[in-house]
UniProtKB/TrEMBL annotation:
Name by which UniProt lists this protein: Citrate synthase
CDD domains: EcCS_like
InterPro entries assigned: Citrate_synth-like_lrg_a-sub, Citrate_synth-like_sm_a-sub, Citrate_synthase, Citrate_synthase_AS, Citrate_synthase_bac-typ, Citrate_synthase_sf, Citrate_synthase_typ-I
Catalysis performed (reactions): oxaloacetate + acetyl-CoA + H2O = citrate + CoA + H(+)
UniProt keyword annotations, A-Z: Acyltransferase, Transferase, Tricarboxylic acid cycle
Keyword Ion transport: no
Family: Belongs to the citrate synthase family.
Domain of life: Bacteria
TM region positions: none
Length: 389
């Protein structure tokens, strides 16, 4: 028909206009609503940045207070949703649990399904931000065979989440400010990244006027894959395999370069960043700080640093402009905090939730939005005569 240009993987096609996040991949710049990621990571909180992404401006002190308080009052899961976890195997991957439970929120909040009612969109926003960390912590507790705790609304958002994961019924939970600030910072770094695969999924599903719970459940599934958010878990698996096998870092990098069994250096490379990923720079700083502050030593961090050094000096990686991305050092930090590798991508999902919501709302409010419907180039057989039988 002459209408379709092939752009496999959307390397060069904008699917939408957006005013949320600015990236300059060559200069290593990332800004949310105009604010540099470095400033936000140093000075803001997860919820303040969430408000910024969703509403376009930093909240006033009164707005932030009200936002935090409203979220605090929506953390409880319906008892039936708590029991939903009983039906799943204890060894379920928490990302599957997460997407299922978020999809299921749509069954509990059927009053929120009118996508064009701003009040309903607002209450769904609050419910998603408040309940995702609780769902995530229950997925973790379930895998450990431990009892679920109720949220503690005397704590901050991040401390509440940490307590739900690491607290138990037998002893009082003691807040660790080093851990809290480090996690807050990592969550901020993950909050948005414009039209990545999961956000594009959220927008595509949302463009059909599906509700926000179904749209974000789909986004969580897109994030699960090892080429996207699943890379943080895959990095740790890779580091552990190198350690356990005793293989040298140089030899492993050779195997990556030879594309042996299709292996990649996980946590390296990015579609957009071609000089460095500004998030990776901040995460690397955190890795040393957090491990020092927690008094943890980890051989895997040494292996990661050695891998980075060897790769960055190698023509294969230089020619292809492959640098560490946000996922390269996060796993080592999450591990030091006490999270099992299967929870790493879940932490990414909690981080990314505000971005998914902001994009869904921007898509939903934009009168120019049309149902997403890519074209294809058909390469199958031309018309064939039905064989006489
Ligand atoms: N290790 C080894 N080679 C690589 C890697 C890697 N991590 N990444 C890309 N390459 C090679 C690739 O084989 C190709 O080489 P050639 O030209 O010889 O065929 C070339 O570099 C271009 O790669 P590509 O796959 O066409 O690049 P892409 O933009 O389609 O993919 C990517 C981007 C992030 C999926 C990819 O770099 C990758 O698979 N990285 C590892 C997984 C990872 O860390 N993902 C997290 C991304 S950042 C956070 C997030 O979004 O979740």
């Amino acid at each position: 028909t002459g209408l379709t240009a092939l752009d496999q993987g959307f390397v060069n096609t904008a699917a939408t206009k957006s005013a949320i996040t600015y990236i300059d991949g060559d200069a290593g710049i990332l800004r949310y609503r105009g604010y540099a990621i470095e400033d936000l990571a140093a000075n803001s909180t997860y919820l303040e940045t969430a408000w910024l992404l969703i509403h376009g401006e930093l909240p006033t002190a009164v707005e932030l207070d009200h936002f935090e308080d409203t979220i605090r009052r929506h953390t409880l899961l319906h008892e039936d949703l708590r029991r939903f976890f009983d039906a799943l195997p204890h060894n379920a991957h928490p990302m599957s649990v997460l997407s299922s439970a978020v999809g299921a929120l749509g069954t509990f909040y059927q009053d929120s399904l009118d996508v064009h009612d701003p009040e309903q969109v607002e209450i769904s926003t609050i419910r998603l931000l408040a309940k995702l960390p609780v769902i995530a912590a229950y997925a973790h507790k379930k895998s450990l065979g431990q009892a679920f705790l109720y949220p503690d609304n005397s704590l901050s958002f991040v401390d509440n989440f940490l307590k739900l994961n690491f607290g138990n019924m037998a002893e009082p939970y003691v807040v660790n400010p080093v851990l809290s600030r480090a996690l807050e910072r990592l969550l901020i770094l993950h909050e948005d990244h414009e039209q990545n695969a999961s956000t594009s999924t959220v927008r595509l599903v949302g463009s059909t006027e599906a509700n926000i719970f179904s749209s974000i459940s789909a986004g969580i599934n897109a994030l699960y894959g090892p080429l996207h958010g699943g890379a943080n878990e895959a990095v740790l698996t890779m580091l552990k395999e190198i350690k356990d096998s005793g293989e040298s870092v140089e030899r492993f990098v050779e195997r990556v370069k030879n594309k042996e069994d299709g292996i990649r250096l996980m946590g390296f490379g990015h579609r957009v960043y071609k000089n460095f990923d500004p998030r990776a720079k901040l995460v690397k700083e955190s890795a040393d700080e957090v491990l020092d502050a927690l008094g943890v030593r980890d051989d895997l961090l040494d292996i990661a640093k050695e891998l980075e050094e060897v790769a960055l000096a190698d023509d294969y990686f230089i020619e292809r402009k492959l640098y560490p991305n946000v996922d390269f050092y996060t796993g080592v930090i999450y591990k030091a905090m006490g999270f099992p590798p299967r929870m790493f991508t879940v932490l990414f999902a909690i981080g990314r939730m505000p971005g998914w919501i902001a994009h869904w709302r921007e898509m939903n409010e934009d009168p120019a939005t049309r149902i997403g419907r890519p074209q294809q180039l058909y390469v199958g057989p031309t018309e064939r005569a039905w064989p006489r039988r």
